[in-house]
Every structure is written in C-alpha cells, then in structure tokens.
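Model it.
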Amino acid sequence: MEIRLRLDGDDGRELLSLYRWLRQDPDVTRNGRVSLVPTASRPGEMGGAYEAVSAQIGHVIALAGLIIAYRGWSDTRRKDRRPVARIERDGVAVELEGASADDVRRVAQALGMPDEPR
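Modeled.
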C-alpha cells in the first residue's frame, strides 16, 4: 500500500533531504520502496517541484521503520525550523509527533495498516 509523507511549510529542500535520508536507511528500504511525488504542473509551467515522499509498505513493522527514520532525520533539523510532518493514506492524514511504540500504533490505527505482512 502507498502512504505519503508531507512536510508543511517547506519550500521543497527539506522534502528532498528527507527523501535522501529515507533512501539510505536500510530498515526503510528493506521493507518498502520510497520515491518522490512530483507537484502537478499547470499548462505553461515547467514543473520540477515535489509535494511528498511516497512509501510503498505493507505492514506496521515497515511503518515503524519509516517513522523512526523520519524522527532520526527530524532530529538533525533546527528545532525552530522543523516542518510539520503528516503521513497520509487514502485521504486520511495524521500528524507525526514522535517515534514511540504508542505513536506508531496511533498512526497505524488511523491509517488502517495491517499488523503483519500479507
């Protein structure tokens, strides 16, 4: 299943940094695939910007790896400049607050993620 990770208040640089971070994390790439989602361009625009990181994952363990990797990246940002992160699936969005087991459960329940691989 596809989930999307968005950063509110970002000019695109932070999203690209996050994408690169996630691609280098073995726990993320072992359990899923990440890619950038381009912003839809209007006629006459060149495009080239990105709106989200897409992750193809199948279960809560993969979601936990993604959230923990996100928190690792977030901890490298200045506290006063950290963008607000949201994780989305099928129109449901949940703000990421932490990477504890309770945070992972809260996000997984909100997104309807299966507990185990299918």
